[in-house]
Task: structure prediction
Amino acid sequence: MRFTSDYLVLGSGVAGLTYALEAAKRGTVAVVTKRAVAESNTNYAQGGVAAVMDPEDSFEEHAADTITVGYGLSKPDIVRLVVEGGPAAIQELVARGADFDTSEGKDGLDLTREGGHGKRRVVHAGDITGQEIQRVLVEAVRATPNITVFEDHMAVDLIELSRSGGPHQVAGAYVLEEQKGDVHTFVARATVLATGGAGKVYLYTSNPDVATGDGVAMAYRAGALIANMEFFQFHPTCLYHPKAKSFLISEALRGEGGILRLANGDAFMERHHEMRDLAPRDVVARAIDFEMKRTGADCVFLDMTGQSAEFLVRRFPNIHARCVELGIDMTREPIPVVPAAHYMCGGVVVDEDGRTKIPGLYAIGEVTCTGLHGANRLASNSLLEGLVFAKRAAQATLDVGAGRLAEPPEWDSGSAVPSDEAVVVTQNWDEIRRFMWNYVGIVRSNRRLRRAARRVALLKDEIREYYWKHLVTRDLLELRNIADVAEMIIACASTRRESRGLHFTIDYPEPRDDYAKDTLIVYGEPPHLSGR
Ligand SMILES: Cc1cc2nc3c(=O)[nH]c(=O)nc-3n(C[C@H](O)[C@H](O)[C@H](O)COP(=O)(O)OP(=O)(O)OC[C@H]3O[C@@H](n4cnc5c(N)ncnc54)[C@H](O)[C@@H]3O)c2cc1C
Result:
């Protein structure tokens, strides 16, 4: 079937829904989302949204903290516009009914502090900030007649018109309706990628199952410019427990006095950074990785027992309850934690209004590389980036309404048959995630990257052959996407012969001035460094 709308939004997290609400003021919007509308990375965000809300704080300080953490690769003009958009974005969420924590005795929002921030500036709703944001956005979208949400619909590929003899332009997307197995043609005047991150490319991740890098992989295949894929952020503290898959122990715990310890009680962060437990994430993740490898331990411990039980239960109700369920009483004993893949700093290159290099294609949120994060992301800056860029992209696409819609060809399954060997998919999926964790994880080396490159090339051949012979399923599409994402991360990491921010390699352990550039990659070409 063919569906048409003025705006096609792929993804229903903070970026996609914020964009949809704004664009719906001008035209019809189709929101295509892989699972239920609320299933997104956004929904799992715990810590909060960074914004300058306190008179004692300033845009200059928020920008300076962002740039410091970005290790020389953040773009100051982009940092400035995101930071300045913070207060209005928060006020808009409050106006939509977001129930953020307020401060006792002060009539204002309660602001917490996280690693790398010089001030308390993180607006939060207990420890379920993302869920609260997702809730108000979903409610608003449901109440907006111009928006149609297609749940359990997965974008397969962008419709790039030069493939069918037209100009190099995106005119929509082919979309799999999972239940029926049909691939529909969604045509729009503006197509907006808001598909989030790719944590699932690694064995251990804080991300939900939807985070398979579909957007960045689709943009890559369509010929878009992609940047900085080597900068994958590992969250230092995910719960270490056999029954807890991907449960994050928020950085806000360290902001509230949490201390990382080894099993013998040793508070090791003072050996690694002057800010100790409040050092930037990459430093903390590497320190934990180092201490675990040094001692052979399976995990380290986050000690919150310096705070009162009453405070911990009130401030972190969700984390407290989950820990209790698993038999851990954080008010009396330290929480076992390990690092896990968390946030994709690289992505589709966009300008200050979310425009990609391909006409008709826009991108917002975690799928992008805007220049905000540089080589590392400052905690709680990503929800902010999604909110600010969604509004800017909506403004930039307001006038796309005029003109005829393209008429691309329908999806053609050729002679593909139903998959008869799903084991190929699960086997390759496991293999990619494991070698990415072991060879392209927190600490890299030339030899490990070469091994990973050989493996991904081999697997991509197998996946390509399987893909063309069989009817598409979500598992197969996700596998194809994580293989593309893995290829990009390995290629970018192999190009950066220095250590900077989130990219650490034992072969080049120091930063180099001549590498203070972005790593750019286009499908079919080797990556190169450029000042952009
Ligand atoms: C556990 C956790 C805690 C976090 N805590 C914080 C925090 O405190 N503060 C902060 O700023 N950031 C935090 N982050 C990061 C932040 O949540 C994300 O960067 C942000 O929510 C991304 O928003 P988004 O709209 O770009 O993508 P998402 O919220 O991930 O939404 C992506 C959407 O795209 C859909 N999708 C994906 N592929 C397809 C496809 N092929 N077809 C159709 N739909 C598709 C998904 O189903 C989903 O609806 C956290 C992340 C995690 C995982």
